[in-house]
C-alpha cells in the first residue's frame, strides 16, 4: 500500500534523497505503524512531537491504511 509522509521544520533533513521539499511517498505493507515509518526514516525517537494522520491527531502505535497522509512535527518554541 502507498502512503505519503510529510515532515516539517528540522525533520525535513530525514526525507529520503529525491523527495519533494516537505514529503515523500512510501510503499509499506499492511501491518505498518507510524513507529515503523519513524524507524525507516531514522528519525530519533524523541524528535516527533505532533503526529497527524489525515489531519487528525495520531499515535506512534497507530496502524496505517492505504492512502494515509502522515504529518510529523518536531518540538517547536516561540515567544
Report the span from N to C terminus.
Answer: 41 Å
The assembly state of the depicted protein chains is single chain
Proportion of beta-strand residues? 25-35%
What spatial form do the alpha-carbon principal axes imply? globular
Summed up, the helix count is: 1
Give me the count of strands. Answer: 5
Stated plainly, the CATH topology is called Ubiquitin-like (UB roll)
Query: Strand count, sense and closure of the main sheet?
Result: 5 strands, mixed
The portion of residues assigned to helices is under 10%
Poorly predicted regions = none
User: What's the name of the CATH homologous superfamily?
Assistant: Beta-grasp domain
Overall pLDDT metric: 94
Instruction: Give me the Rg, rounded.
Output: 12 Å
Strand-pairing-aware structural class = mainly beta
Read across the widest sheet, the strand sequence of neighbours is 2-1-5-3-4
CATH class term: Alpha Beta
Would you list the SSEs in sequence order as H and E?
A: EEHEEE
Q: Provide the number of structural domains.
A: 1
CATH architecture: Roll
Amino acid at each position: 500500500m502507498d502512503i505519503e509522509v510529510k515532515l516539517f521544520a528540522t525533520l525535513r533533513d530525514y526525507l529520503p534523497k529525491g523527495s519533494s521539499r516537505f514529503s515523500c511517498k512510501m510503499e509499506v505493507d499492511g501491518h505498518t505503524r507510524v513507529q515503523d515509518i519513524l524507524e525507516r526514516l531514522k528519525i530519533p525517537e524523541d524528535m516527533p512531537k505532533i503526529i497527524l494522520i489525515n489531519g487528525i491527531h495520531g499515535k506512534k502505535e497507530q496502524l496505517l491504511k492505504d492512502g494515509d497522509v502522515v504529518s510529523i512535527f518536531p518540538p517547536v518554541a516561540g515567544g
